Amino acid sequence: MRSVKVALAAGLALLALAVGLTLLQSPLSVAASNKVPGNETAIWQTHQGATYCQAHESLPSGVSAIRIWLVAAAGPRVSVVVSSHGHVLTSGSRPSIWVGGSVTVPVKPLPRAVSDVTVCTSFRLGDETIDVQGSVTSAAVAAYDGRTRLYGRMGIEFLRPDKRSWASQALEVARRMGLGRAAAGTWIVLLALALLASIVALVSRMILREIAS
Amino acid sequence: MSEQLGARAFTGRTRAAKRKGTRRERATLREPSSPASRRRSPRAVLRAIPTAARVCALVAFLNAACWSIVTPPFQAPDEPDHFAYVKQLAETRSLPSSKSEQFSAEEISVLNGLHSFKIRLEPQVRTIATRAEQAELQGYLEEAAADTVPGSSAAGLATSEPPLYYALEAIPYTIARGGSDLDRLQLMRLLSALFAGLTAMFVFMFVREVLPGARWAWAVAGLAIALAPLLGFMSGTVNPDSLLYAVSAAIFYALARAFRRGLSASSAAAIGGLTAIGLLTKLNFVGLAPGVMLGLIVLSARAARVSGRSAYRLLALGGGIAVSPVVVFVGINVISSRPAFGIVSAAVKAGHGSLLAEANYIWQLFLPRLPGTVNDFPGIFTTRQLWFNGYVGLFGWLDTPFPGWVESIALIPAAAIVLLCARGLIQSRVAVRDHGLEIAVYAAMALGLMLLIGADSYIAFPNLDGEYGQTRYLLPLLPLAGVILALAARGAGKRWGPATGALIVVLFLAHDIFSQLQVVARFYG
What we know:
- Chain A has 213 residues and is α+β, with helices and mostly antiparallel strands.
- Helices cover 26% and strands 36% of the residues of chain A.
- The model of chain A has no long low-confidence stretch (mean pLDDT 93).
């Protein structure tokens, strides 16, 4: 059946194109961070919605996501607003149901770096608990929720696309995949690729034989 | 249309024959238990599996094997716990007794060498990246090998699970005994991958039974399920879910076969045996069991119309085999003065709140809140955010999702599939009506599983909201997903149906490949 062959060919071509375009994209990397390795601790805990703000941050140019160190079992929707002297520079939000020790919120990139900005993060909570991770500081520079000062500064990282694409980092990724394995070595990546190629071949053959006939 | 006519003709013939009670019909209903069919050798049974079903099985196995490579060791839900259970069973021939995560020194050593505790639930932390870290891991592996204390009495969350899957995993564990824990883990993951193959094969066979007139649509269902990323991910790790999916798919197939051919001694024993295997595999199977028993009752009642009361012996046979593991388990516990349901008893007693509150919670765990009810999931649209987004992609320790825009775009093909499926159902409405009881049995199985997930989640509520709100727990219902996909392809009409089917398969292939790329980016990027 011709329509099946056309559908298969078009589908595979689109898939190849999408994979190619994805590999030309760049991963996010940390442009700036206020984290002090080994100095992170819980600086606040809340069971209700809040807006935590932190002044005196520097927003690098081209930042497309901001990572805030919040710990949750199934995190709520989180919004981030970056402002300078009361003027909103960029903002974004991330839907609920995220896990782990941080939440990454996509924001609109700015073409220029801005110093001395205030980063505010907001969320609403039902019955859950959120821990804020950061480093203990004096109250004067600590993050705040309205008039309440937290015990330190929230961990914040500014992320922007790396200069190198996924494709140009492929070898490094492959080497990394080969570590920490039963039989360590980059060959494991070739095995995975061979398995994927076999799957594509088997699926295509089956579509032509069973569905097109 | 041919399927529809086929189904109608089949039902019509059966009804007419039942009314007349002809000798031929009785022979048809009893045929599967004839001595000739009982004598079929295992090789003949294997030969009877269509080539297309075997290819689907192979695709699912290869896919899960690929996932087993892509997913870093122990970076899957509760994999260290399941590994510890197998270690205890293989090395001491006894079951773990503690739910703590104080695993053996050997396992902890390997987890430390892999930086597992730092990586898990921390999406920004990658796996080990340098030769120095690899050398450090080697040191940990050597330290682990020096540990001579057998077993691991603590197996975390896995401790309360029944032993069948772990007993099977003890085989590759023992085979790879000369190697490191990483060698054992990889071999054990490959056994899980085999179960993915069985799952896809039984989904194909189930769809073949349910939609007998649409041969090409069987392949659509079998291939799409074989490529489902969540099946590949879960079956590419050490987790009893992989066997649970295979057993559930087999039981759906066995029931569908019995609904087509009538209940015989062999099919009753098969359904009972599979239920027993399911109960010995994972506690979640308890959710499916009432639906299976309902199926046995319906099938026995149907058979009784032809062969009289003797048909109820088949019910006793199937039911007896099904509950035998539970009876033995309870018996052993009662004799040894332990709680009747072992470690599970405590969880059963841990219920709280009114029945209405629990029912409201379970409803909201799956569906939008009803007006006037308490909101147990403020700010969360569970149907989409827990279940749909969870299906689209939540890998690793559920810490590896797709970006939000992918989850939004995924709604488009999902809606198209639902609409096409609805159209396919309308086209087959006569067959649907004629198979109402059979469909009710499958619905009861689905409902039972959802109730179990909801009730279990409610135990931890409100401290944790939607603890078991993970799409992987719904994968025992993959055969029904297979039917939905086959119906969707058929819903596109006779002319465009096969092409739509091909596109559905390619869509699942694309979803699978991008899911693996997402995991690669998260752990190794």
